[in-house]
Design brief:
about 190 residues
Length: about 190
């Protein structure tokens, strides 16, 4: 009889380029207690789906129907995810708010990375908002997800100073590279033994 895998199963949800998702897949590949069981996106042409194929991780995308409620969309999302039985949902640039029903059905075992030092600059454009506000330091936050906008319990944060005269593009690139190293590090510490 085959022994059932004791690995923690994580599903990644992402909407964009997927650099954080790739960093997590790379980390998981070399980790004997965690497995990325699928990558899902709300955008059919998301680069993250191509990145996942490179790691032989199953993918799916789920388009929002016209006038579809968030509740209905998340019910369909749950159905798509159920084929993979994930224990944890990891958001990596996933640009939709999750409903309470969705979060509850995963026992609130949902983690996100946000590009700011929360509670500063929640929302869609963390780096842009910080840059325009001319802050002296920025950073990223890994947090548990609740039904609010980037309001869940903070797991860990990494700060970095802004460089005088740095362009927004360079600042964002630097921030994203820091996220890519930080997110797997935090997951390694937080999820081990869960
Ligand atoms: C990252 O900067 C992530 O923190 C941000 O989207 C980017 C995704 O990049 N997420 C949010 O703003 C969530 N509110 P990636 O697709 O290359 O990982």
């Amino acid at each position: 009889m085959m022994k059932e895998s004791k690995k923690i199963k994580i599903a990644i949800l992402a909407s964009g380029s997927g650099s954080n998702a790739e960093a997590i897949m790379k980390w998981a590949q070399n980790c004997d207690w965690v497995e990325v069981v699928c990558v899902g996106s709300n955008i059919s042409k998301s680069l993250v789906l191509t990145r996942a194929q490179k790691y032989k991780v199953p993918t799916f995308f789920l388009l929002k129907k016209k006038n579809e409620s968030r509740e209905n969309y998340d019910e369909r999302l749950k159905k798509s995810l159920s084929a993979y039985s994930p224990n944890w949902i990891i958001l990596a640039g996933y640009m939709r708010l999750l409903t309470i029903n969705f979060l509850a059905s995963y026992n609130y075992q949902v983690i996100n990375i946000h590009p700011s030092i929360l509670p500063l600059f929640p929302g869609l454009d963390g780096y842009g908002d910080a840059y325009r506000a001319k802050v002296s330091e920025s950073g990223c936050t890994v947090h548990l997800v609740d039904s609010g906008l980037d309001t869940g319990e903070i797991i860990d944060q990494r700060k970095f100073p802004l460089i005088n005269g740095e362009s927004f593009e360079d600042f964002k690139k630097r921030g994203l590279a820091i996220e890519n190293a930080f997110y797997p590090e935090v997951l390694e510490k937080y999820l081990k033994g869960k």
